Amino acid sequence: xxxxxxxxxxxxxxxxxxxxxxxxxxxxxxxxxxxxxxxxxxxxxxxxxxxxxxxxxxxxxxxxxxxxxxxxxxxxxxx
Length: 79
Fold this sequence. Notes:
With 79 residues, this protein is mainly alpha-helical. 46% of the residues lie in helices and 5% in strands. Strands 1-2 form a two-stranded antiparallel ribbon. Helix 1 crosses helix 3. The chain is globular. The chain starts with 12 loop residues before the first helix and ends in a 6-residue tail after the last strand.
């Protein structure tokens, strides 16, 4: 469930790739949009990155800021 922290859950390879991409984009100055993530990995649907991103939020690896165009943030303790 979104918003429920899942401590001790391992990050999958796909989630790690998405996390690495998001961290790199954030380091450049702004987080990527769903469509930018989708295009980077060659996915045809926004459901693929959305699932990975929300799993990373649930694991505490990313923060989601609702109602913003670029809502993904790296938490301070994860940098």
